[in-house]
Specification:
Helices cover 31% and strands 24% of the residues. The chain has 450 residues and is of the alpha/beta class. It has three domains: 201 residues, FAD/NAD(P)-binding domain (3-Layer(bba) Sandwich); 111 residues, FAD/NAD(P)-binding domain, CATH 3.50.50.60; 98 residues, 2-Layer Sandwich (Enolase-like, domain 1). Helix 1 links the parallel strand 1 and strand 2.
């Protein structure tokens, strides 16, 4: 029998890699995990968690304004960007410490450095060659930048989380969830925000009612959306600002340019070619339903496979990998009806099919409601909430549920259970609502959209 240094080597200590490594070690496997940056990966260190903390921080600006309608005296407290960033970094340090402890207690060996495949069973890190019976690649994704003149002047979401100062004027290029989330953060904290998108509306791929509703709310908040344009160049000025040139229209001058035009699987320089691991046309590692590559002992999970790029999905894939390889229970992660959220201001949450996706499958009924949240009846804020149910005409099953408005991620998480269980519109209707809440609208919508 071949002798290996480890039963499993995981390249990448993000959410999926850490979960898979810990659970594999729990079955008695000898496991090592390799990380070149910070343990915790994109979500915890460079994505979901720090971004959500900044979202929380920026919300106070709206809360102070809204309090006037409830009898509070006008308050304009000072805001210190550096204090928010310092507090965020302190929390990230705490979370990274927890990850180190979890791995250590599980018996997983952490190796800091760049892991690179040098064979089907071998990985090089810090000049050492280590062998493993099974290798798991969980290296995530990385922001991409277009090749245009002056792109070196732009930052990505990675750098935007640690800016030394809050920009007075910022251009955010992109219309996806990262772009609209940062647009909301900077706008609420007082920056002049310009969002540059190629399409007519933000959030391509989301339900059209949510896209339209959010774009209207962003504009109400003072975010200037430049749609139907492409940035052709970025030029630095002598005053330290930047001028963006477009394919149509006048140039724009700002103090910071941020690109949020997409992320790519983080596969560069990890030795895929050497080991013979195949990638698809988008550069993602090609895997089967059980996350196995074309090499029998090499697996890949998470964003590096470019399937559903969400942290909870990576966690589910990590668990399925352990069941398949170490518990003799071949398991494929369930990717049907995965709920997701955009922490824009206001936020969007969704589960199931969009109207466009559902109508392609057959006849549907659509229930939609737009209203002002009860809180804003006193605050005076001009902000609409939108709720939408998409129902299969033949089976009465709820195929999609979408919401734009305060607390929508918290609400849709619960609704997602019902959708996952195949709930019908009749069962939604039979559910007694909690009053007064916005969530009760989901069980009181009776009028079909014509």
């Amino acid at each position: 029998m071949t002798s290996y240094d480890y039963d499993l080597i995981t390249i990448g200590a993000g959410s999926g890699g850490v979960r898979a490594s810990r659970m594999a070690a729990g079955t008695g496997a000898r496991v090592a995990v390799i990380e070149s940056l910070r343990t915790g990966g994109t979500c915890v260190m460079r994505g979901c968690v720090p971004k959500k903390l900044l979202v929380y921080g920026s919300h106070f600006a709206h809360d102070f304004e809204d309090s006037l309608g409830f009898g509070w005296q006008q308050a304009k407290p000072d805001f210190h960007w550096t204090k928010l960033i310092d507090a965020k970094n302190k929390e990230l340090d705490r979370l990274e410490g927890i990850y180190h402890t979890l791995l250590k207690n599980a018996g997983v060996e952490e190796l800091m450095g760049k892991g690179k495949l040098v064979g089907r069973h071998e990985v090089e890190v810090n000049g050492r060659i280590l062998s493993a019976e099974t290798i798991l690649i969980a290296t995530g994704g990385w922001p991409t930048l277009p090749e245009i003149p002056g792109i070196e002047h732009a930052v990505t979401s990675n750098e935007a989380l640690d800016l030394p100062t809050l920009p007075k004027r910022i251009a955010i290029v992109g219309g996806g969830y990262i772009a609209v989330e940062f647009a909301g953060i900077f706008n609420a904290l007082g920056s002049e925000v310009h969002e540059i998108i190629r399409a007519e509306k933000v959030l391509r791929g989301f339900d059209d009612a949510m896209r339209t509703g959010l774009q209207e709310e962003l504009i109400k908040k003072g975010i200037q959306i430049h749609n139907g344009v492409n940035v052709t160049r970025i030029e630095a000025t002598e005053a330290g600002a930047f001028t963006l040139g477009f394919d149509v229209g006048a140039p724009l001058q700002v103090d910071l340019v941020m690109y949020a035009t997409g992320r790519a699987p983080n596969t560069q320089g990890i030795g895929l070619e050497t080991a013979g691991v195949a990638t698809n046309g988008k550069g993602a590692i090609a895997v089967d339903g059980f996350s196995k590559t074309n090499i029998d002992n090499i697996y890949a999970i998470g964003d590096v496979t470019d399937r559903i790029n969400l942290t909870p999905v990576a966690l589910a894939e990590g668990m399925a990998f352990v069941d398949t390889v170490y518990r003799n229970t071949p398991t494929a992660a369930d990717r049907e009806n995965v709920a997701s959220a955009v922490f824009s201001q206001p936020p969007i949450a969704t589960v199931g099919l969009t109207e466009h996706e559902a109508v392609a499958q057959g006849p549907i009924d659509v229930y939609e409601s737009s209203f002002t949240n009860m809180k804003h009846s006193l605050s005076g804020r001009d902000e609409k909430s939108i709720m939408k149910l998409i129902v299969d005409q033949k089976t009465d099953r709820v195929l999609g549920c979408h919401m734009l408005g305060s607390d929508s991620p918290e609400i849709i998480q619960g609704i997602a259970i019902a959708v996952k269980c195949g709930a019908t519109k009749a069962q939604f209707d039979a559910t007694i609502g909690i009053h007064p809440t916005a969530a009760e609208e989901f069980v009181t919508m009776r009028q079909k959209r014509v």
